[in-house]
Amino acid sequence: MQHISKTTLARIFNIAVALVCLLAFFIGQAHAAWYEATGQAVVVNGNKSAAKRAATQEALKQAMLFAGASVQSVAKLTNGLLENEEMTIRSTGEVEHLELVDEIFNGDVVTVRVRADIFPKGKICSAQHDEKHFATTHFRIRNRAQLTQGNIPHFDKAFTQRFADAMQNQSENLKISYIAPHTAKFDSRYTDQNIRTLAAQGNTQFVIIGVINDVSMGKEKGTSLFSPWRNSVPRRVFSMSLQVYDGINGGLLFNSTYQGEEEWTFDRFEDVDEFSSTFWLSRYGQAIDGVISEAIEDIKESTACQPITGRVINVVDNRVSVSLGRDNGISEKDEMYLYQAKEVIDNRGRKYLQYSLYPGTFIVESAFSNSSVVISDAGITANIQNNDFVVKK
Fold first, then answer.
1. For residue 122, pLDDT beyond 90
2. N or C, which terminus of the chain has less Cβ within 10 Å?
């Protein structure tokens, strides 16, 4: 290991990639088990606490994934475990006890071993491995004046692309396939309509809307009387809100806020390239990557059981072309339902979506990269129109 550079190590481990060994020790209660997991992370720029946090979070996440439990609360559990090396949780329903077994620093690598008492809920659905495609816009910066610190005026574009790349690398079946070249601030009265429009533009089933609430710089702390040799380093906040919508009906699936803070290691008057690896490998960039990773896990969980849904794009005789294909995990002989959705307004002016299912099941005759041709097992295609909907059975 001593012959490998720090940069190479960072690439190998991807800052927080664990070499995970899992051991399950089953105890008396039904479906309960003790899980031990070992995670490793590289110490970047001497930041041992960040490396320990990354290794702990990765180990805990892998233990929970292995046990079939939810990973949505990993970041919160990690924070609690680092504050108290042993803790009992009463509220999650899946993790009752956590213990930090040991930590070992060896050169630029930290190894952390955790033990967790996990009671998985066992949430399984047929759609959890289906391809999920998302449309989004550039994440809106709530206060653009904050971007003058470091001169990062294109941070919204850089962050959105970083988010999209991380989703594709971190997940096997999630992908941001369309980024509209603008930011979005929807009037609440027309949110569902705007969501459906954005989904149609990107030919996706889901829509992500993000707002970066705060990237402000904290005040520099003065040097201590007891450590005058230390240079003061300002800290910078990162906070964002995230919403995930069903692009078919405009309904909200998930809503959460994320926050982090880390040292801003660049000079106060330095112009920073927000697209560069120098920025993203800095302590602040790595903190943002941690927030992104947590958000992607939440998105994965919130959309796991949503069935693949697409649109009718053409009808010729008894063959119907739809906007789902091999990229969405569709294969020949797969079965689908077709339905029509229309907006209904009641006597109080409230809008509702009404669904009408077409009779029979539709079989995939041929599948292409982003489309398929289906035929009805009942031979009935009358009244099917473009922009009707199709869902995998």
1. no
2. N
